[in-house]
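Dig into this one:

. . .
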Amino acid sequence: MGSAKTSIEPEIRDFILAQRMFFVASAPLSGDGHVNLSPKGLDTLRILDDRTVAYFDFVGSGAETIAHLRENGRMTIMFCSFDGGPKILRLYGRGEAIEPHDPQFAALRDHFPPEFAGRAIIRLHVTRVAVSCGFGVPLYSYVGERSELTDWCDRKGADGLREYQEKKNATSLDGLPALRWIAGK
């Protein structure tokens, strides 16, 4: 039923690009820490090459993935087919959060719509690509994207987003440092 590869081959690329939603999982090293699983959408994922993907990270109520990547780099991205044939695809690897002040940010930023307002670009260096059946995933019909997140960012503006991040994105639930510009590191 399942298969594993070490790179994003053409049929895998096509499957990824056809999905409108994906999930990001990360965890701290501590066994007592919170495992994080976040849904993502809004056309934020890009395939950079056959072993690298990146997604645009909007400002959110927490910064778990960023904190976990700073601590240990472990991350999995999962895609499910909600229409068409059943399939689950996972990209395993080492991730990094690239913040706006980082030298690589500008080049990566060009891959995403200019109107997006965010706090980082998350890049995953893929070490394993696993495909499984997805027989238990229900069928859903895509209706459209929600505008609430982008509208919220627009209403906040640059200064409001910065203030929000200072309050909500300095650390993870477990107290791990998240955004470097807030922590000064």
